Structures are given as structure tokens and as C-alpha cells.
From TrEMBL:
The species this protein was found in: Catellatospora methionotrophica
GO biological process: polysaccharide metabolic process
Source taxonomy: Bacteria, Bacillati, Actinomycetota, Actinomycetes, Micromonosporales
Region (Disordered): 119-138
Protein name, UniProt field: Acetylxylan esterase
Superkingdom, natural source: Bacteria
Stored InterPro entries: AB_hydrolase_fold, AXE1_dom, CE7
A Pfam short name: AXE1
Amino acid sequence: MPITEPNPGEYRSTLRAPDDFDAFWARTLAQARAFALDARFTPAWQRTIEVHDVTFAGFGGHPVKAWLALPAGTREPLPCVVEYPGYGGGRGLAHERLLYAAAGYAHLYMDVRGQGSGWSHGDTPDPVGTGPQHPGFMTRGVLDPDTHYYRRVITDAVRAVAAARAFPLVDGSRVAVTGESQGGGLALAVGALVPDLAAVAPDVPFLCDHRRGAELATAGPYREVTAYLAVHRDHEEQVFRTLSYSDGVLFAERATAPALFSVAHMDASCPPSTVYAAYHRYAGPKRIEIYPFNGHEGGEAVQDAARLAFFDATLAR
């Protein structure tokens, strides 16, 4: 069922970063960089667009898969869009996502470790074990920021930008990040952790103001947190402290690249006020597309067109 929040655009989050938030991510990324990126690109599919099967080293040196698509016959480096899947999805098949390559961009679509059996398939395992969790990914390792699932995924997402830049036909000075839902939350995180991006485009982003999401969402993965705390009643403070290290509100206030957000006012999975929480904190130039009568599907093809126009402007096509 859709939810209706009165005046969600007026909401301001009170979330504050843990004292060691920046040090935590500096340490995490330094540990990741200790492993060679080892980005490999193998031709996988070619018509008017060519697609490469990509493998690179993510968190802990673990292999992460992706697809890289670009117009066939490209000879000069292109601006690149790095995209992250929504919750439960993986990179899918080589020919599934060709929009950005058809528009003349290079496009890297990252697999998400351990996911890819919800609505598209994936090829990247998560070899790290954790303690008890509610089914899903949100509460995997949730009692400690060091073991939390999204520490690994966000690190993979940062390394995906480095992998894209390692391809000789990508212009590393013109890279944007984007995604819907979970992918939007990851784009916000990367926007903060990779300071020289050209653009950030989070659509109906998940992973923003986790406590409010857990309190308001009537569908989707925030409900995993609610269900976990309904059993582990004494873990509330510990859980929300861990979740703060992956919170898009805190990443937004550290990101400065031009940004295009989108929000859907009947979104039961990512309540609109959680999206506005990140939008209002965003530190760079920004604007937001609003879909008053849509749920979590958001703007779909309409937003695709808006995002392409945004990338044409920010990536100087």
C-alpha cells in the first residue's frame, strides 16, 4: 500500500555522524586499496554496442563482477556512467542495459555481492560470514560497523569507479554515478567518497535516514530492520549506530558534485521524507524531480530522459 506523508519536502533529519565516520571510511578504503584493483575486461557481446565482462577486486580483494558497455568502434575516450542496481538485483545479462551506451556513453553496471536473485541475476558472492540476521541483507553483521554488509558493498561501489577509469576508452575526468533505490543510496555514498566525480544522480534512494525508514516504511528492506528489532529488543542503539555509517544523509553532506535526485510521494519502500532528508543535506549544486502520484517505481522512462539531459550537461557532451 502507498503511504502519504504530509509535506514530506519540509522534513529535516536530525541525524548526526558518529565521531569516527570519516576515519572509518578512510581506513576502510585504505584497506581496500592495499589489494591490486586487477580490473579485467573480456569482450562478451557485440552488435552496434559492445559489452565487456568485467572483474575487479572490491572489499577484501574479493572479485566483483560488472558489465561495461559502449558504442562499437569507439576510438576516443568517452564520458562514463557508473550504475548500481536496486535491492535484490544483480548485473543481469550482457544485453539488458544498453541505454547509456546507445546515448554515446561508456556505462559500467556493477554487480552487488550476494544479491542478484530478486529480480535480475548476479554473479558475485559475498564470502564474509556474520551473526544472526533477519532474512535479507540489511541486518547482516549489523551489530558492528566493521562487519556490516554495506561496508563491503559501498567499498565495492567505490572500487567500481576505479575499474571504469582503468578502461582505456573511458575519460576518467568525466565519470558520473547513478542508481535507483539501493543504487541511489550507493551513488550518494560514492559521491562523498570519490571527490572528483562529475555528477551524481540518485533516484528514489534507499539507505537514507535509516531510523525514519524503519519507522515509516510499509514495504521493502527497511522492514528488515523493524523485524530484527522486534526480536532483538535490546539492540536498538547498536543497530542504528551501525546503520549510520552507511546512511545517505551523512554521505550527502560530504558530496559536492552536481546532483539530480528524484522522489516519489507515494513510495512505501523509501518514504519520501527519507529522500528529502538526503536532498536537503546535499552539499553540492542540486535539483530534484518530484513524482507526486508514483510509488517506488518513481519516474521510470520519464526520469531516464531527465537523467540523460542532466548527464549531457554535466559531462559536457
